[in-house]
Amino acid sequence: MTHYVVALTGGIASGKSAVERRFEALGVRAYDADAAARAVVEPGSEALAEVVRVFGATALDGEGRLDRAAMRQRVFDDPGARTTLEGILHPRIRTWLRDAAAADTGPYCILSIPLLVENRAHYAWVDRILVVDAAEDVRVARLVRRDGIDEALAQKMIAAQASREARLAIADDVVVNEGDEASLDGQVRALHLRYVGLSR
User: Fold this and answer.
1) What sections of the sequence does the record tag as coiled-coil (predicted)?
2) What is the pLDDT of residues 53-76, one digit of tens each?
3) CA 104 and chain centroid, separation
């Protein structure tokens, strides 16, 4: 297993991907829970079969893949459905991430876990938590622009996750990502040097 595992988290549209890309540009491997979530529901997978058993064939698109947009809408409208879907996917996502960290050969690796606060107990094995932070109005604007949704749905998606305060409370380190690229670059470079040092 890699020497050191840093869990990267932040609310939806906080800019986790931008931070991930900067670490990767410095030669650090980043393993993303969203990528894991896609991998575990590939056609033919146990997870996809279980989703179909629970939610029906409407969970699939025309190509037999998980209809992510339809399921996203469904789980945000029904907290019980969200809990059920998370119960199917999250254990498999955790296994995928742990296996990725175990196979990593760098001095440290990044695990990008959007719902870390909600699932903190399952990730007690990570060494450090890095939170990407941005004000709610910045995140709403990003969601509207990125996903083509209205502000009401964007706010609902943000409200469905842990609060900003809850994320900051578990942070060992915080990156502020509100649009200043040079600042973001500098913050990530400084953290990279810190993590290399901590991994020794």
Assistant:
1) none
2) 999 999 999 999 999 988 988 888
3) 19
